[in-house]
Specification:
By secondary structure, the chain is of the alpha/beta class. The chain has ten helices and nine strands. Helix 8 (221-242) packs parallel to helix 10 (263-284).
Length: 292
């Protein structure tokens, strides 16, 4: 009996594949070119050969001053963007002096309690030249407001700010569990942020729809894709219910997937994700065929 192989997600694999396995497979239709709809092979024609991706190390520990020093060190040594880790009290909306925060302040990220903390965190860093990622969900509206206020105090127009706030509350309810409010009011807050940023901060990505946490919570690659894209569809639908146009919302959504050791399965997952999302946007929501 030949040995049976499976992907990490349990999908059966043959030990050998030949040309006969590709009968009826249309390369042009199924794969296409990178940069062309439905972007199966990628969103840019030459992918990242002409333009490198942003390099940012997830950073944050202790006080705002300590993390500011770390940010400056990383930028000095070649990092091209910032990725902010917040401590647990900040993630769930507690100040550092609250009784529930005892023993947790500054332990898994930086503690941010005020506009003064946010100003210290980005002291000496040009916010109009460096993009910032913030990994926070339940209290994302507060952190984004503080970041925008810090930019305004630095005389930086919100229209020049580039970055991403994770703000994907749906995956929190079944993967990471750092939520504060029930689903309905949480979605309302997110749509408030999408609506505001579409007008005032058009270069800011208002959600990073996160499959990573779903996969790390035990999902297979297939389940990760299914739940993540379903969450993305709900954000689009909720935005439409508010009266927002899909073409004003969809370009500012980003995705954050996991990548396990099954090399070929992960490539297939990423290709499937691009293809499915592009088809959903075109056929269900009638979005324009824009590159991300």
């Amino acid at each position: 009996m030949p040995k049976q192989f499976k992907t990490q997600s349990g999908i059966p694999l043959k030990s050998v594949y030949t040309e006969s396995d590709l009968k009826g497979w249309d390369k042009k239709k199924k794969a296409g070119k990178a940069g062309d709809y439905p972007f199966t092979r990628g969103v840019y024609p030459n992918m990242y050969q002409g333009r490198l991706w942003t390099m940012r190390l997830f950073s944050g520990f202790g006080s705002a001053e300590e993390t500011n020093q770390r940010f400056k060190y990383l930028l000095k040594h070649g990092q091209t963007g910032l990725s902010t880790a917040f401590d647990f009290p900040t993630l769930i909306g507690y100040n550092s002096d609250h009784a529930y925060s005892k023993g947790e302040v500054g332990k898994t990220g930086v503690a941010i309690d005020s506009i003064e903390d946010m100003m210290t965190l980005f002291k000496g860093i040009p916010l109009d030249k460096v993009s910032t990622s913030m990994t926070i969900n339940g209290s994302a509206n507060v952190m984004l407001a503080l970041y925008f206020a810090a930019a305004q105090k630095k005389k930086v127009s919100l229209k020049k700010l580039r970055g991403t706030i994770q703000n994907d509350i749906l995956k929190e309810y079944f993967a990471q569990n750092t939520y504060i409010y029930p689903p309905k009011p949480s979605i309302q807050l997110i749509i408030d942020m999408i609506e505001y940023c579409a007008k005032e901060a058009p270069k800011w990505n208002t959600i990073s729809i996160s499959g990573y946490h779903i996969r790390e919570a035990g999902a297979t690659a297939v389940q990760e894709l299914a739940f993540t894209l379903a969450n993305g569809m709900h954000y689009i639908e909720a935005s439409q219910e508010r009266g927002l146009k899909v073409d004003d919302v969809a370009p500012r959504l980003s995705f954050f997937f996991d990548c396990h050791n099954d090399f070929f399965e992960e490539i297939a997952k990423f290709r499937a994700a691009r293809r499915i999302w592009a088809n959903l946007m075109k056929n269900r929501f009638k979005a324009k065929e824009k590159r991300s």
